[in-house]
Structures are given as C-alpha cells and as structure tokens.
Design a protein that fits this description.
By secondary structure, the chain is an alpha+beta fold. The protein is 30% helix and 33% strand.
Length: 155
C-alpha cells in the first residue's frame, strides 16, 4: 500500500475576457453566481460571514465561512468539512482577468484525499468554464446540472 507524501492541493485557472470588477462580482454576488454554479444562496460574500449555498437540482447544500475578502483581488472561504478555497483575481489589462482557484485541506485516507482533489479540480474548472461562457458570450451552459443528470432530484 502506497501512502501520500503530501496532502493534495489543486488549482483551476482560466483567463476571462472581462474587467476584474465584473469577474470578482460574479463570485461575490449570488444573483450572478446562481447563473453558472449553485442555485440558491443565503447572501453576498462578506468577510466573517457564514453563508449557505444550495444545489437544489441535487438536493444538497453546504455552509461556508468567508475568511477573507479583498475587493477585486481575493476571496478566501472555508467549507463545513474544513477544506479551504482561495480565488485570486489578476487583471491582465482593462478587459481581461486571470482567475486562479486553489482548494486545499483535504482529509481522510490517501485514496479519499486524492478522490476529493480530483473531484474538486474538475468541479472548479467546470465553474470557471461556465463563468467564461456567461460573462464573455452571455451563454448559460447549465454545466453543473448537466454534469450528473442521473443524480438530479427533480427529473
């Protein structure tokens, strides 16, 4: 049996051709985020605030703590399972933003941590692709619901 030398840390990144203010707001403001990721939120992200996000199509949700916010630059949260997520927003010019999402703090056996990391990387990559389509082309791809159609609670 092999063991892990390090707990996995995953990163998903994407260039989005929109101003940093618009890209950042898409993650802070649930009126926008619900168009490409979760379906329901208890409120805007604010430092120190506890928020609930729900994926109603799957009948699941989770609570998170907003650890740190720096407008148009950084969002740092902690999920209820203790995993940490950090978004870094780097403007490339007036109309381009490079978004880097890092997820860390996985727990469990080595296999469980690797599975969580792989799922996380795929999920955050999908979220960034959905955001890119929405902000650059005003297209709603419905990626999150279409990822696992057999798991939908309201088919």
């Amino acid at each position: 049996m092999r063991t892990l030398n390090q707990i996995p840390v995953v990163k998903a990144e994407m260039l989005i051709r929109r101003p940093v203010e618009e890209v950042y707001e898409a993650f802070i403001n649930p009126e926008i985020t619900t168009k490409f990721w979760f379906t329901k939120s208890s409120g805007r992200l604010e430092s120190g605030k506890r928020i609930r996000w729900d994926w109603e199509m799957y009948g699941v949700g989770d609570d998170l703590l907003v650890k740190e916010i720096e407008q148009n630059r950084l969002i740092r949260i902690e999920w209820s399972d203790g995993t940490q997520v950090e978004w870094i927003f780097s403007p490339r010019n007036d109309n381009e933003t490079f978004v880097s999402i890092t997820n860390s703090g996985f727990s469990g056996s080595g296999d469980e941590m690797v599975n969580q990391a792989v799922d996380s990387m795929g999920g955050y990559t999908m979220v960034l692709c959905g955001l890119k389509a929405l902000l650059e082309h005003n297209i709603y791809l419905n990626l999150v619901a279409d990822k696992a159609p057999d798991a939908l609670v309201n088919k």
